[in-house]
Amino acid sequence: MIGRLVYLKDVVTLHLDAEKCVGCGFCTVVCPHGVFVRENGKTRLADRDACMECGACARNCPSNAISVQSGVGCAQAVLNTMMGRSGDGCCSLDSGCC
C-alpha cells in the first residue's frame, strides 16, 4: 500500500491573493490535494504545503488570484521519479514501502 506524499514545509511557490479572489471555488474543484477550501464566499489555503505545484488552480482561476510555478519543486520530482529520471526531489512516502 502506498502512503500519503509528504512534502517539505514552506518550499512551495503557491500564492493566493485574497483581495483578488472572487470566491468562485474552481480551485477547490481542480486541486488534487485539497489545498484550498471555500469559506464565507472566499477561498483560503487549507494546506499550502500539500501543493504539488501542478498549476491547475492558477490555470482555472478567472480572477488571477492564484500564482504558482508549475513544473518545479515537488511536482517535477514526482514526474521525474515516475519517468525513471534521477534528481533532487522534495517528496517522500511515509508508508516505508520505498
Q: Strands, helices and their partners?
A:
Elements: E1 5-7, E2 15-16, H1 26-30, E3 36-39, E4 42-45, H2 56-59, E5 66-67, H3 73-82, E6 91-93
Antiparallel strand pairs: 1-6, 2-5, 3-4
Structure description:
There is one protein chain. The chain has 98 residues and is α+β, with helices and mostly antiparallel strands. The protein has one domain: Alpha-Beta Plaits (2-Layer Sandwich), CATH 3.30.70.20. Strands 1-6 form a two-stranded antiparallel ribbon. Strands 2-5 form a two-stranded antiparallel sheet. A hairpin with a 2-residue loop joins strand 3 and strand 4. The radius of gyration is 14 Å and the shape is elongated. The termini are close together.
- The total tally of domains equals 1
- Could you tell me the number of beta strands? 6
Class from helix and strand fractions: alpha+beta
| Number of helical segments with 4 or more residues | 3
What does the radius of gyration come to? 14 Å
| Percentage of residues in strands | 15-25%
Average pLDDT over all residues: 78
What is the global morphology?
elongated
Described by strand count, sense and barrel closure, the largest sheet is:
2 strands, antiparallel
How far the N terminus sits from the C terminus, by CA atoms, comes to 11 Å
Uncertain stretches of 5 or more adjacent residues? 91-98
What would CATH call the class?
Alpha Beta
Percent range of helical residues: 10-25%
Spatial strand order of the main sheet: 1-6
The helix-strand sequence is EEHEEHEHE
CATH topology: Alpha-Beta Plaits
Q: Judging by the overall fold, what is the CATH architecture?
A: 2-Layer Sandwich
